[in-house]
Amino acid sequence: MHKKVGVLKFGGTSVGSGERICQVAAIIENARQEYRTSDGFFPVIVVSAMAGVTDQLLRIARHACSGEREAYTNELASLRLKHLDAAKIVARNADKHALLVEELEECLTFLTKDVYALHEFATQGLEVSLPTAAVASWGERLSIRLVAAAACELGVNAEPVRQEIIITTHPKTDPSQPFGIVVGAEPLTEETRANATRLLTPLIEQEIVPIAAGFMGRTITGFVTTLGRNGSDYSATVIGAAIDCVEVSIYTDVDGVLTADPRLVANARLLPQLTYEEAARLSWFGAKVLHPRTLIPIAHRNIPVRVRNTFRPHIRGTVVGPVLQGQSGACAITFRRKLALITVESTDMFGAPENAGQVFVLAAGAGAAPVAICSSSGHHLSFVVEEQAADSIIALLHHDMENWKVSCRRGLAACACIGSGFTSDPMSPARAVTALAREHIPVISQGASEQGITLIIADANSESALRCLHRDLIAPVIPLVRHAHSAHERRKEHVR
Ligand code: ASP
Ligand code: MG
Fold it and tell me: Is any ligand 1 atom within 6 A of the Cβ of residue 49?
């Protein structure tokens, strides 16, 4: 393919109503114009189900499994109305509206058949994860029809992609997973690339904008599947990598990635850029940015992802991409709460040094990965884990590690100051610790890396810690109250 292509992905809230779908269509039209008039890229669209629809489909699936016919029939009826309501708004021309409704009704008929099929599987006691996934994926299959119709309404030549693009492995069955979650249906790179080329290239070559369903795929064994809850960002980067796109834009309901949670820090600001590593670390320490999985298909190819707001498209958002030059200090502060610090110490100071390997194998045995490793010195090792996992880890440590004293402190939080240039600025770690000291917040433990510093503090202090770290490392708080009669103003009055 010779054209430069870019993927634009719209989440559930972005396509949450007929009106919102019209806004999405305007963004698509704009991208199409930019491609025509400037050096933009040709847009390939990936969409989620309308907000709330996947939840509803999973409720329907649950009722189908338990044989509650009336319940799922009612839910199916309300799902139908929701889409027909949106159809009235997105396609105003009578003929086009009729065609759209016909297509939606056809989808709803197939969905109903899938619901019955699921019911059959359940009554026969068969494995239901794939038939459930088939039901769950209808949200996206319906929304692509609406988005395509809305784009056509604005004169864009657009078409829904009716077949699954992503090819995955056949999933494992894992009864411990929550209902409706397919486990281990992982995208297969080469198969997906071949399939994406087959389905998308002919459209792109004819300058038809493809509107593809996020979240869903097809197993190599031929079953409809999903990439797991909230998997549509991931599906967008899988598709983007498969067609060698130049950028993936994730359109959501926030302006991009901020320096801290704006509900807690009033002057949190938008980050124009972020590296893949910083974004991954931010999400590990609690920021609701991008799921780290989203970066897997594209980070090693250096394809940037732009996070931006559907409802404020004039804002350029945050670009997550390769390493940036000349950065220093922290770029964002985040925290993860409800943690416990586990310390393992040898009772014999002169005995064998610590066995970190054994400690972490035991922690993994309890199904818990350490959130951060804090300190270690031969006969001593400490790390933080999620509070809820602490008891089972401690029990295993007690059981398997004789001659070791295990202690635990609960009610903690990890405050992470993240930034690639953190260690190149010698003052950054000092500023972080000083900021907390000034607020009388004790640092219980800490961990550091080239990407920043993680300070372990009492959970009760976490919000004030976040605020003072943000103030001292990222953005000073400028008082909003202006003293009416400052010397400067008196001088101005005098001049008058
Ligand atoms: N519609 C799917 C879900 O709600 C996928 C997504 O929106 O990311 O899980
Ligand atoms: Mg969703």
Answer: yes
Q: DSSP letters of 136-179?
A: HTHHHHHHHHHHHHHHHHTT--EEE--S---EEPPPBP-TTSPT
Cα of 146 from ligand 1 centre, angstroms: 17
Top mutation candidate among 15, 182, 229 for ligand 1, by most atoms within 8 Å of CB? 229
49 Cα nearest atom in ligand 1: 1
Ligand nearest to the CA of 57: 1
Domain annotation covers residue 350: no
Measured N-to-C along each axis, helices 356-365 and 387-400 cross at an angle, to the nearest 10 degrees, of 120
- Per the listing, tokens 């991409």 go with 321
Domain range for residue 106?
A: 5-253
In a domain, 57, yes or no: yes
> Into how many domains does the chain fold?
1
How remote is the CA of residue 49 from the centroid of ligand 2, in Å? 6
CATH code of the domain in which 247 resides:
3.40.1160.10
Q: Is 385 inside any structural domain? A: no
Q: Is 225 a domain residue?
A: yes
pTM of the full structure: 0.90
Closest CA to 431 of 415, 419, 444, 417: 417
List, as ranges, residues with CB under 5 A of the ion ligand 2.
12, 48, 54
pLDDT tens track, the chain, 496 positions? 578 999 999 999 999 999 999 999 999 999 999 998 887 899 999 999 999 999 999 999 999 999 999 999 999 999 999 999 999 999 999 999 999 999 999 999 999 999 999 999 999 999 899 999 999 999 999 999 999 999 999 999 999 999 999 999 998 877 666 676 677 789 999 999 999 999 999 999 999 999 999 999 999 999 999 999 999 999 999 999 999 999 999 999 999 999 999 999 999 999 999 999 999 999 989 888 788 899 999 999 999 999 999 999 999 999 999 977 766 678 899 999 999 999 998 887 766 666 788 888 888 888 888 999 888 887 888 999 999 999 999 999 888 887 789 999 999 999 999 998 787 888 888 999 999 999 999 999 998 888 889 999 999 999 999 999 999 999 887 766 655 555 555 555 454 4
Is residue 48 within 6 Å of ligand 1 at its C-beta? yes
Nearest residue by C-alpha to atom 6 in ligand 1 = 230
Find out whether the beta carbon of 192 lies less than 6 Å from any atom of ligand 1. no
Note the Cα 374 to chain centre separation in Å: 27
Q: What is the CA radius of gyration of the chain?
A: 26
